[in-house]
Amino acid sequence: MKKLFGLIYKNLFLTGRLFTGLGVCALLFLLEFFFPWLGVIPELFFWVLIILLAIDLLMLLKTSKGVFARRITPERLSNSDENELSIYIENRYAFNINVSIIDEIPVQFQKRDVWFETALKPNERKQINYMLRPTRRGEYEFGWIRVFVKSALGLIERRYNFEQTEILAVYPSFLQMRKYELMAISNRLTDIGIKKIRRIGHSLEFEQVKNYVAGDDYRTINWKATARQGNLMVNSFVDEKAQHVYCIIDKSRAMKMPFEGMSLLDYAINASLVLSNVALLKEDKAGLITVAEKIGAVVPSDSKYTQLNKILEVLYKEKTDFLETNLEALYVTARRVIKQRSLIVFFTNYESLSALQRQLPFLKRIAKFHLLLVVFFENTELRALSEQPASNVEGIYIKTIAEKFAYDKKLMVKELASHGIQSILTTPQNLTINTVNRYLEIKAKQKL
């Protein structure tokens, strides 16, 4: 009895339809004072409402397990991507019901409107899909699933609580990585903005001698093989393989700047994961180094199939520090770990020319031994300010300062180029495409 009372007290709720009926009933009793001819109509209406309420209550309480619901989630979530989740709902009542579902999603999303409504026939099953886009890596805790059930009468609502607390890890954008992977395998990278790079000459790595087909370059004809076979034969070349590609990620305070809900560090991590995957698909060796005031993770370059998982697990745990980057420690580590000439892609950010000049001596030393590519970010907010027309003196001042900072970014590119260091100045949303573009260009032009 006590358990039943607790159930009624905690999990039964009055609906708007019942309050409407009670309001009509009160109005009829009020009108009876002025219109005696209404007679027993108010009392009859009241008792009919009470009987319907009792029937509705019995219908909802006659079984303890009238509905079943559970959340269907992937093993892990992909940062900055739309991840699909589902709620499976099953009606075990013998009549039609209307259900409202609340899914208690993690607090990181700051959303309280994950509410779904649907109707179910007897023994019907449904799956409701919805999307979540995390913007931070880490652990996300999901809570309970609350299901509110109404019968066709709709006078009262019963709540079912399904405890399904679970913790999902949000990893760097592996969905984006897979998209680029499929494009690279099918040679369709141009569909997502990757440029086709015209090759100058041939790669140095010879593959085979094959029969000539229409369209082959006549300059590759192997005349000795042609004389032996009696048919035109051509030499086939492939891209050089097993070259070393290192992504170095700056974790200092400069990378904590937010853009569309994500920090610059997260954009750099997503781009590093994609670039490492593309490099492995090109049969190069991918490695990773993270740095702030101290050296963080170091993953030596390798081309094994487990290498990408190692990089993914390392990137999942990285966080932004609040001190300045120690380029001296990075140079020492690069000299110790990276033994062969390699492509080093350094993801960082400079907001002033003086910040670049402080680090330039160490960048020049690294560039003596490796092909260094510095990737830093364009401040889109400042660009938007510089493009806005000024309407007063304060607006002119703000516009001038914004244009100065934007111009400093262009000076940084020229400063790096004057010392033989390649660079990419890009917006955060175009970071991955521009980085992969430059990697493919370096491969095509045999600069490494």
Automatic annotation (TrEMBL):
Keywords: Membrane, Transmembrane, Transmembrane helix
InterPro entries assigned to the protein according to its UniProt record, in alphabetical order: DUF58 (IPR002881)
Transmembrane residue ranges: 12-38, 44-61
Domain of life assignment: Bacteria
Domain DUF58, chain residue ranges per copy: 208-350
Annotated Pfam families: DUF58
Full protein name: DUF58 domain-containing protein
Organism, scientific name: Mucilaginibacter rubeus
Lineage, top ranks: Bacteria, Pseudomonadati, Bacteroidota, Sphingobacteriia, Sphingobacteriales
